[in-house]
TrEMBL record:
<dbReference type="InterPro" id="IPR013324">
    <property type="entry name" value="RNA_pol_sigma_r3/r4-like"/>
</dbReference>
<dbReference type="InterPro" id="IPR013249">
    <property type="entry name" value="RNA_pol_sigma70_r4_t2"/>
</dbReference>
<keyword id="KW-0238">DNA-binding</keyword>
<dbReference type="InterPro" id="IPR000838">
    <property type="entry name" value="RNA_pol_sigma70_ECF_CS"/>
</dbReference>
<dbReference type="InterPro" id="IPR014284">
    <property type="entry name" value="RNA_pol_sigma-70_dom"/>
</dbReference>
<keyword id="KW-0731">Sigma factor</keyword>
<protein>
    <recommendedName>
        <fullName>RNA polymerase sigma factor</fullName>
    </recommendedName>
</protein>
<feature type="domain" description="RNA polymerase sigma factor 70 region 4 type 2">
    <location>
        <begin position="104"/>
        <end position="156"/>
    </location>
</feature>
<dbReference type="InterPro" id="IPR036388">
    <property type="entry name" value="WH-like_DNA-bd_sf"/>
</dbReference>
<dbReference type="Pfam" id="PF04542">
    <property type="entry name" value="Sigma70_r2"/>
</dbReference>
<feature type="domain" description="RNA polymerase sigma-70 region 2">
    <location>
        <begin position="10"/>
        <end position="74"/>
    </location>
</feature>
<keyword id="KW-0804">Transcription</keyword>
<keyword id="KW-0805">Transcription regulation</keyword>
<dbReference type="Pfam" id="PF08281">
    <property type="entry name" value="Sigma70_r4_2"/>
</dbReference>
<comment type="similarity">
    <text>Belongs to the sigma-70 factor family. ECF subfamily.</text>
</comment>
<dbReference type="InterPro" id="IPR013325">
    <property type="entry name" value="RNA_pol_sigma_r2"/>
</dbReference>
<dbReference type="InterPro" id="IPR007627">
    <property type="entry name" value="RNA_pol_sigma70_r2"/>
</dbReference>
């Protein structure tokens, strides 16, 4: 299979992928996801085994993209809560006015974390795994997990503060 196949599939199945995404997301704003679907298909064309039709393969990619986006939103909301615990009272006032901005800033901040810190924040802070469970996933000691988690949260707070993220502070 080649990149040319995906180009051909775009012409054949783009409307099907778009229709699926409109119904699946309930939004007409799906162009970016459609585009990303076909970009992923180009990257992964060598792994396409032909066990399903190209159309169902592409729709599966689109579906997974939407699921991943939904998970990320949930992740950011959970992490935001963890970071705000000590300043919960003053943050509630700001949260209503700045919710979207905060989510964007938090997403960008988490993206800046090194892979091990990002993983430990997701496993401990978002998925709420214990230190022992997280250590099994990361194949390290639970003590190392605790240290990494503490450092990751500190680094995350530092990134957010550097970018002017005002969680829990009155202006």
């Amino acid at each position: 299979m080649e990149e040319d196949s995906v180009t051909e599939w775009f012409h054949l199945y783009e409307k099907d992928v778009t229709s699926f995404l409109v119904y699946y997301t309930g939004s007409l704003e799906v162009e970016d996801i459609v585009q990303e679907t076909f970009l992923i298909a180009i990257k992964k064309i060598a792994k396409y085994e032909g066990k399903s039709s190209p159309k169902t393969w592409l729709i599966s990619i689109a579906r997974n993209l939407v699921i991943d986006q939904h998970r990320r939103k949930k992740v950011w909301n959970k992490i935001k809560h963890i970071l705000q615990v000590e300043n919960a009272d003053t943050h509630r006032i700001e949260e209503n006015a700045m919710k979207k901005l905060e989510q964007d800033q938090l997403y960008r901040a988490i993206e800046q974390l090194s892979s091990p810190y990002k993983e430990v924040v997701i496993l401990r802070g978002i998925l709420e795994l214990s230190s022992v469970e997280t250590s099994e996933v990361l194949t390290c000691s639970s003590n190392k997990v605790n240290v990494m988690y503490h450092r990751a949260l500190k680094k995350l707070k530092g990134i957010l503060e550097k970018e002017g993220f005002q969680y829990g502070r009155s202006s």
